[in-house]
Design brief:
The protein has six helices and no strands. The protein folds into two domains: 40 residues; 58 residues, 434 Repressor (Amino-terminal Domain), CATH 1.10.260. Helix 1 runs antiparallel to helix 2. By secondary structure, it is mainly α. It is 62% helix and 0% strand. The longest helix is centred in the middle third of the chain and has 21 residues. The protein is elongated and about 60 Å long. The termini are far apart.
């Protein structure tokens, strides 16, 4: 059995150190690096579960993610939202999505309507 020195992650500074160490190990590679990465990953996951609040993405973040993943731009949303100006206002969070826009986006992009509410 191998022995590794395992850090305790108690603060955000400790977390940053652990993340930096994983980056170093990933660049180095090798079986020893894999073991340490696995252990640090578990420690990081545990710390983040307890200390980093999870927030659901809002409708605009969801749209931006889908657009990025599919190589789309704002103009691609015009048929689903209504006009260039309206797309700009929605993406800029100046106008909320209406029920009709949500339905068209859901149908047109295959996004669950609940993700756009």
């Amino acid at each position: 059995m191998k022995t590794l020195l395992v850090p305790i992650i108690e603060t955000d500074a400790d977390l940053e150190e652990a993340l930096a160490r994983i980056e170093q190990l990933m660049q180095r590679g090798g079986d020893d690096a894999d073991d340490e990465i696995r252990i640090l990953g578990l420690l990081i996951h545990d710390y983040e579960r307890e200390h980093v609040p999870f927030r659901e993405p809002d409708a605009v973040e969801t749209l931006e993610f889908v657009m990025s993943e599919r190589g789309m731009n704002a103009a691609d949303l015009v048929p689903l939202i209504g006009s260039d100006e309206l797309v700009t206002s929605v993406l800029g969070r100046l106008e909320p999505l209406t029920a009709e826009m949500i339905q068209r986006l859901s149908d047109g992009l295959g996004i669950p309507a609940g993700a756009l509410l």
